[in-house]
Amino acid sequence: MNPFSAAFQRAVHFGYLAAVHLPDSKEPVPEAVLAQLDDAEREHALTLSGYRQVDWVGGRLALRGALGAMDRQTPPLLVNNWGAPVLPDNLAGSISHKRTLAVGLVARSRHGSVGIDLEDLSPPRERIAPRVLLPEELAAVEALPPERRWTAIVLRFSMKEAIYKALHPFVHRYVDFKEALVTPDVDCTADVQLRLAKGEGPFRVEARYTWLPGRVLTQVRIREPRPSRPRRRKKRKHSEHRQAERSAEQGGAVANSAAPGTNVDGDESV
User: Fold this and answer.
1) What domain range is 204 assigned to?
2) pLDDT for the residue 1
3) pTM of the prediction?
C-alpha cells in the first residue's frame, strides 16, 4: 500500500465514495503528493504539520477521487469556519480519516446533505458510552453479550458523528450526541430519530454502515421533507353531465321526469 494512493472508489447509496491510504507517520507530505492538489489547497497544506497535514491532504485526495468518479471539476476544496469542506452549491460532500485511511463522500446537493465517519474498532473504549448514548441506547447495549457491546457503542458513536456533519448545513450549530437516537439494523441500515434541542426540522434521515477490516464506516443523508403538492380536483361533474347527455340522446330525448339528484341512468350525480 503506497501512502496517498487510492484504496478504493465506488458508487454507494448516497453518492460516490473514495478512500486513500495514509502513512502512519508525522513526516511532511512529499512534494510529489502536494503537487496533486490545487494551488490554493497546496498553500493551505503547507501551513499545517504532522498528522494534521497528513490527514488534511489525504482527505482532499479522497474527496477529489470521489469527484473524479462523478466526472466533476471543482474549485479548491478548502474549509469553512466549522472545518467542513467547501463545495459548489450543486454538490454536497464529507470527509473522515483515521490513522492509515481517509475517505471522501460526494453527492448532488439536490438529493440532500451527506455526512461520513470512520472509526477504529480497537482499542475498545466502552467508558465513552454514558457520554454519547441516550438511556434507550444504553439499555439496548447492556442487553447484548459483553463481547458485542463495544461494536454496538462505536457504531452508534460513528453514526452520530456522521449525523452531525450532514445536519450542520441546516442548523449551523454544534449538535450534541444526545440529540439523536440511533437504532442499527442487521441489514446495515439504521433508524434515526432526531431530538434536536432547538426544535429544528423536521428532517428526513437515512443512515447506513459498512464494516471494514478493523473499522466501521458510517454514511448519513439528511433532507428536508418534500413539500406536499395540492391534489388535483377531478373534473367529474363535467364528465358525468356529458355522459348523461349522450345517454339521453341515444334514448331519443332527455327524460324531464327524472327524479332530482339523479341522471337519466339513475346514477347519483355529484
Assistant:
1) 112-227
2) 81
3) 0.82
